[in-house]
Amino acid sequence: MDTEELLETLQAADLSYYQANAYVTLLELGTASATEVAQASDVPDARIYDVLRDLDDLGYVELYEQETFQARATDPETIVTGLTERASAFESAAAEIEERYERPTLDTQTVSIVKRFDTVLEAARTFVRDADIQVHATLTRDQFEALRSDLADARDRGVTVNVTVLRRDGDDPLDEDDYRGAVSVAHSLSRPAPFVLTSDLRRTAFAPNPAAIEDYGLILRNRSFTYVFFWHFLLFTWLSSPVVYESDAGSPKQYADIRQFLLENRDRLRGDDPLAVEIEGRETDSNRTVTFSGTVVDAEHAEGETGVDDGRADADREPSVMSLTGTASIVVDDGDTRRSVGGWGATYEDVEAHRIGVLDAAPADGPEPAE
Fold first, then answer.
1. From residue 142, how far is each of 161, 165, 360 by CA, in Å?
2. Is the pTM of this model over 0.85?
């Protein structure tokens, strides 16, 4: 440590600039008169006596008279011990700050506005870890790599992970090995877009387009707001971009939104083979949670179209994106009962679906309601 660094450290330990300067000078001189200390340091002659008296009060120097006013540095053991204790306290405070940094969870907050993208990314990582059904994300290659291990853990839990990766000039394209194990389906988009990650249609982490003037982020634990960001993802970065990877793992897909289910399964719904699903949701009349499995026997959306080939005249009409922006529902037959199933906010249907899982075969089990 050079002299300048020592002076700065002593000032951080609450000495003034003049006090630190006079003390370091005395360490070098040993014993000196006040005039000699002033001449060898940056302390003005008019201030030197007051500065030395203050250092004497603090225990850094000892003053005495011997023909002239003399000063010498005291045994440094006491000073060193005090500085060491303060250094230890600073280290403990630094560790405590790291421990407490953003310790308050977002559980009790519906909407948070933050200034740093790192905070948004950390929230996104938490939301991926909390996901049970489906994760949707629009992100750059670097952001994907930062979240990849958490996305892979989510896939291991059976979560459907759909990502749109933003290609920027100079970026090397991701290959299948990059996506494998972490993604269900990946799309690629060459234009700028905001960072958006939604989890189970309940949680959102958002940061604006890097080219935007605003520098902020949003962290949401709100289903209504999340639905808006989910549709932004679906319409502006998912449906409008090409597929670059699709998992060949063969695991059944899960959906948190009935409209996405209708869009992605319209061909199967119109085909001859029955489409079996498992529904988790809420009975709209009793508000009870319910889980049941069955076969989709009808599907309707805003324009009255059906995605099931049940003999109706409009059975061969594919649903458009706009037709799915209004009401949407399916009818599921479990062998004993037919239930109408709607999406978020369902009122007229029998069940509001929170999760739709596509099964490989039509199950024989009946409903399993639970309080």
1. 17, 10, 35
2. no
